Amino acid sequence: MSNPSGNEFESALTYSSYLAVDELLELQRPLSDGPEHDEMLFIIIHQTYELWFKQLIHEFTAAQQSLEDGDTHRSLAILGRIRTILKVCE
Fold first, then answer.
1. CB count, 10 Å around CB of 66?
2. How far is the CA of 28 from the CAs of 12, 20, 36, 47, 86, in angstroms?
3. Distance between terminal CA atoms of the chain?
4. How far apart are CA 66 and CA 76, in angstroms?
5. How far is CA 46 from CA 2, 26, 27, 51, 76, in A?
6. Per-residue pLDDT tens for 30-85?
7. How confident is the model at residue 23 (pLDDT cuts 50, 70, 90)?
């Protein structure tokens, strides 16, 4: 990828920028006065579950496509990934 300014590091992709860490960490907005200590934990746990649910939908869609394509090996690998995610969410 070329950079017209000549500075290769100016637009370097970083862990933080790729994952939008700053934006992600701004999504926890406790509403209670104080805020209550456990409220942050509640928000983070439930936001994390929502992200896992989004990933499960992505994986099930890919598994369905692999099955429709007759790619059994890929389907089994994806189903294994789904199983692992579900174990994390127990």
1. 18
2. 27, 14, 13, 9, 24
3. 42
4. 9
5. 40, 15, 12, 9, 29
6. 999 886 889 999 999 999 999 999 999 999 999 999 999 999 999 999 999 999 99
7. very high
Task: Provide the residue type at 51 as one letter.
Answer: L
Q: Model pTM?
A: 0.80
H, E, C per residue of 60-80 = HHHHHHHHHCCCHHHHHHHHH
pLDDT at residue 27 above 70? yes
- Pairwise CA distance, residues 63 & 61, whole Å: 5
Instruction: Name the token pair of 38.
Output: 């456990």
Contacts 24+ apart (CB under 8 A), 2-10: none
